[in-house]
Amino acid sequence: MKKEQTPQQPHEMYEGGSKVVYTVNADGKYELSSTTGWEPETIVLSQALEEIDRLSQQALLKVQQGISSPLEYHMYAQRMDLQMLAAAVGKFQWQVKRHFKPTRFVKLSQQQVENYASVLGIDTNQLVTIPND
Length: 133
Prior knowledge:
- The chain has seven helices and two strands; from the N terminus they run ββααααααα.
- By secondary structure, the protein is mainly alpha-helical.
- The chain is elongated.
- It folds into two domains: 3-37, no CATH class; 48-127, Orthogonal Bundle (434 Repressor (Amino-terminal Domain)), CATH 1.10.260.
């Protein structure tokens, strides 16, 4: 997009801030420009966050029912998905998905639990438990 066409549609998601995007200047070269928002982007981002929240609540129910391990819930609660988590911990997706099984999760080594907790930005005690709400 051209620099002068950079959208400036403020949205509460930006909390009064802005972000940087690439634009094309008058010379036809790329440069960075600031934007306070763009309606189509904020709509899509809002929908994505709603979906992650839905998946998080669904995972919480599965954990409470003993169908899944706390790892699945915390993955979604930290706004990650299977692909992102697997890449971050250096495992294949199928390996991480196996750890969603409660029987497999309890057999993880302390090092594996620490690795997951570190990637998720939570402590190990939080990873092995679920919130009460």
